[in-house]
Structure formats: C-alpha cells, structure tokens
Model the fold of this input.
Amino acid sequence: MPPTDANAQDRVDRLRKRVAVSVIAATALSFCAWIYRDHAAQASGTESPQASAARTDWLTYNGEITGDHYSPLNQITTANVQHMKEVWRFNAGTDGGVQTNPLMVGRTLYGYSSTLQVFALDGATGKQLWQFNSGITGRQPSRGLTYWSDGKEARLFAYIMNFLYALDPATGKPIGGFGENGRLDMRKDLGSDYTQNTVALTTPGVLCKGLLILGFRAPEANPAPRGDIRAYNVRTGKLVWSFHTIPHPGEKGYKTWPEGAWKTAGAANNWTGMAVDEARGIVYVPTGSAVSDFYGADRLGDNLFADTLLALDVKTGKMLWHFQGVHHDIWDRDFPSPPALVTVKREGKMIDAIAQTTKQGFVFLFDRVSGEPLFPIEERPFPASDVAGELTSRTQPIPLAPPPFARQCLTANMITTRTEAAHAWAVEQFKTFRNDGPFLPLTIDKQTVVFPGFDGGAEWGGPAVDAHSGIIYINANDLPWTGGLTANTTASPGEALYQNQCASCHASDLRGNPPAFPSLVDINSRLLRPQITEVIHNGKGRMPGFPNLRDTQLEQLLAYLDHPIDPPSNVPSASTGTTRKELAGTSSSATPKYHFTGYRKFLDPDGYPAVVPPWGTLNAIDLNTGKFLWKIPFGQYPELAAKGMRDTGSENYGGPILTGSGVLFIGATIYDRKFRAFDAKTGRLLWQGDLPYAGTATPCTYMIDGKQYVVIATSGARNPKGPQGAAYVAFALP
Done:
C-alpha cells in the first residue's frame, strides 16, 4: 500500500523527483545515443557500442524492445565475477510462482509479488518504496512490466490477470485518464461477448511510436477467444488497431481454414511477447497454436496465422511478411519465446536479421525486412494422421542450419543407464511407444513420443544475443514426453467438462502426477467446496484461473469431482510433467470426439528422466555461420550429484542475460537452486551462488552509484518438493 505515516508526502515527493530525474537522464542519453549512432545502426534499429555504453538501467522487459537480453555494463567481469556476493533480498510472498524480469528505472526497481501485487524497491538496498494492490489475488505468471515516458510524464503498465493497469511510477496509483479509471479489461475488443472470454496477460506488451502492442494467453480448448494482436494509445488506452490472427473473410490466410471458421475457432494468440525494430517501425509477433491443441478435425488446413512469426507495421498493424513454423499444429509446437534482433555477416555484408527459437530445438533466421530465410528451410514430408477426421499437413518446415540444439529422435541407445532397474523398466516402456521422429501425429489409445517434449527445446525465457557479433545463447530442455488421444465416452456433463478442460494435466482418471500436478481423487475430503471454487476461478501455482466457469457448469464440474465415475482399471496414471498451461478456459457445449490423455514426461520410477543426459543444456551458436561455438549440460539434481552423477542437466525455465564484459548470467534450473555466471566465449563456469528458491525467471542488471547489481526473481512453485516461497535476490561485487 502507499505510505501512510506523517512523512509519506515527503517520501512521495522525493520519489517523484527521482523518477523525473531518471526520465530526464534517459531522454538525454537517448539524444546522445542518436548523435553517436552510425548510419548502419540507424538502418538496423540497433544501437552502436558507443551509444549502448551509456545505458545503466534495465528499462524494458528482456533488456530492450529488440529482445536482446543484453546490457553494456562491464564492472563485473570474467576475472572478478567469482567475488560476487548477495547484497539484498526482498520477500515476495509465501507461495506461488514468480517469473518476473524486473525493470530498473533510475534507482527504482519494479516487480510483482507471488500474488501479483506490484511493488517498487530501492534498487541499491531492496527497501520497499510502495506497493499497489489491485484487490485481485492473482497466482498466474506475470513476467514483466512496461515503462513509458516522453520526458515529461511517465507510466508503468502492469499486467494482472485480464487487466492492464497504468500506474504512476512514483506512487503506484492508477492514472485516471487511462482506459476505465486507470485500467483496461483485455477481454474486451475481441469481437465477441467479453464476459465469455478467458484472457491472461502473462507477458508485457511492447512500446513503439506511442502505442502499447499486446498479446495474451488464451485457453487451449474450446471455447477460446481469437488471438487478435492489439495496439493501444499509451495515454488514453484507446484501441488503435487489431490484427486478426484467425483471418476474417477477404483477408490473407482465410482460405487456410474451413469456411467460416473465424466465427468458432480460437487462440492463435501471442502469449510469449514480441520484439520491435523501432527505426523501421516493425513489430515481430510470434503466435501460438489454435485450439484444440491436439486434435484439429474442426480446423482443417494450414491455419494461418497460428504458429507464425508475423512482421507487422507498427502504425497500422498491416502485415509485411510472415513465416509459419508449424502447419496445422496438433503438437502444441507454438513459438515459445520472443524473437531477437541481430546483425549477421554474409559474404562481407552486414544483414539485419531476426532469430526465432522453437520448442523443436530449431533456430530460424530471417532477413528482418524481407522475411527471406538466411539459412535454407526445407519442407519435408511427415506421416499422416490415422485419427478419424484429422488431416495433417503433408510437410513441415525444417531449417538446414543451425543444427538443432535439442535431440530430435528417441532411440534405444538413449535409454537411461542410471540403475539396472531403471534401465529395465524404461526399456519395457519404450517398447510400448509409437516413436518415429518429429511431427509424428498422436493416435488413439497409444502413447506417441514427442522429443524434445511439450516443454522442450527453447522455452518462454528466450535467448540472449550479442547483436553486433551475431552470437545467440539459448538454454534448452532436452527430454522426451509422450502424448495421446482417447475417445470421449463421457457419462455426464460434469465428466465432459473435466475431460475437455482438466484431463490434459490431471489425467483422465483424476490421479494427476503428484507433486507436479496433484491428484484430484477425493479432493472433496481435503478441500471444502468454496476452496475448490476459489482455485478454479483464480488458479493457483502453475494452474491458471477459470473465471468463466460458473453457475450450472461449475456445479456440474464440482459434482463430478465429488463423485467421479470409477475409471477403467486398465487406465494408467498419467506421468504428466511441468507445463505452463492448465485449466485455461471455459467448457464447450459441444464435446469434441477425442481428448488429450495428458502431458506425460518419460520418467523412470524414481522420478528422473528415463533417458541418458543431458536433460538440459546451454548453447552458444554463431548465427554468421550457423555453427555451434559451445554446448554444455546445464543444471544438476543435487542428490544425484552427491552420488557422483554430475552435469546431467535439468529442466530450466527463464532466460540468460549477457553483459558487455562477456559474462552470461542465468538462473533457470529448477532443482539445484543455483544462479550461475559463464564465460560467454567458452561456456566455462565462472561462479555460482545459492538461491532460496529456483531462479525460474530472467535476471536483470543495472548500475547505481557506480556499482553494478544483478537481480533475479526466485520461487518454489516449479518444485513442490523443495522450499516454498518467493524472493528477489540481488548480487554485486563486495
């Protein structure tokens, strides 16, 4: 809450002056940067080294609107980073997940608590300056904020569930002239009854030319809103333009869907963020899959502009070029992270490019202006679906360079050798799988290997890039998952709701996969109905809220959870794993013919990946040549390391940042709760520090009073067996 003691006004006035000074300084630095920027940098939309050297703040999600994860700061170097120590810690909640990349403006750091309260801290001490409580107890991820200033006034845009707030950066109070009393309900402006839309603002929008351009997270089953990309005036909150990711009649791409599908189809949304070439006025927007994620008989065709990298004109929203990464996606292979702007050298010429990482473990690289691929992309044939009504694309695009940064096909010689018992078990399981490489369609009542898994390859943290040398740094998950379909033979409306909306994570038999996904068997004996309802509506941990599920449908679902029909005895418990999505929408009155049987990691009976390491990697790729500079296992399981099984790699979420001194900082690993610094040239580990919880967020770095700080958000939600809580932790040299 804002300060209430006798000195409150003095503190507010001082903070306003701080923000005003930082705004003026930022404006001055921008002017200096413009003076020193060379012609090539003006053309490319990236800063020259002289201009970027003046940056001491972290004003934008992921460092810059270019998506670079880069800071020119160089006080902490490869030679002295081993002396870095924790200098302050801020408690951000007792439970829930925090995935926030905080902002630093002047001396003030902005972030979220685990329940989506917005706060401002003194960046040098971690002391809280103010807190904004919207009245909403949100437990969704909100990965960042957006700071805007024209040199005279400033705004801090905060994303809380389905609401966008415009806050005064000095006080945290809503700015009344924006939207409706300082906020926008982002369920609106989507061309449908907004009360029936389920929308979550998990990733901040991008700013360019006085516009705030936004995407949102949508459900993964029908009904879901169409994933329109929208641009709003930063001062008024007025909608300026929308781009239809599911084309309307007469629009490009309309014929890649069934006739009239735009009225009933949903998603194809941007949940992961965007990048901007400000000089050229282009915003680059990666989109996700259309619903339903794993069965597309009602959306036959390539389904433009789902799973597509869009280049849009910032002023108008007009499409300049596009590339679809997956045709008719039935594997949930949506683009998982914002793209990154980079400049590469080809045949003696510098080319402004854009790099997009994928869950498949690919990097696609394009000319930023024309959309032409800078490495060959081949449309390769893949097997057809054998599921009734489904018609998969005959081909999928495969880049010929760089090589994939995650394994693509599960083979018998990859089966775990951790113990003889684990190996024997995994071999028998492996024999039951359908397994024929990437893009093998799911089938009925049999598990199909997806490798890398549904949360595999690159994830939402995104890469770091050295925009001038053309090197990209990517952390990746590298373990197989399986998935399948089964016929809907539901006996009640409540069961139909459950199978359509909940079974993908809690499994068809309600048994889930504790602790990653809790069992719902006998849930009424552990929680009261009001408690269950609160979780359904507001979400908890990695489970999004289900705000539209009310009245009759809510009662039907609660009744089924109270008295589920006994599942068949031969239905195995789903070995589901960590995923960023669950219960993400309302139910449909039309029950689909098939439903997904659940996200299942291929884990051995002890809970470890049932394949040989590495299970997580950190990669450096030269985008000038398409070749790896280095590749290392990333992360450990502490109990395995204690037994001598080190450097296995582990699941990791949240991205790296790169500094001007060539230090690559990253947390991300779930189980060892470490924060690490690597030599960006070689991949050599230079330093690691302990965190209270997993650092599953992208860090930031900044300088105050001549001292460089590195801050990362940590939380325990990804590992329920570990310590629970949330905190921001700052490190610096002594």
